[in-house]
């Protein structure tokens, strides 16, 4: 959902307790990281409002999305 910028789905998943905005996936990447590297700004803003860490390291490069 974050890669495609589906903010409504992201909201639902978080509200229903299916995921947390701060979760890491099997590739060691956060939802914010996915949204940022895919230029999904609305998703980024929503996740920032949820308290994500912008400087969280992730992925194969162990880098931040910013």
TrEMBL record:
InterPro entries: Ankyrin_rpt-contain_sf. It comes from the Eukaryota. This is Uncharacterized protein.
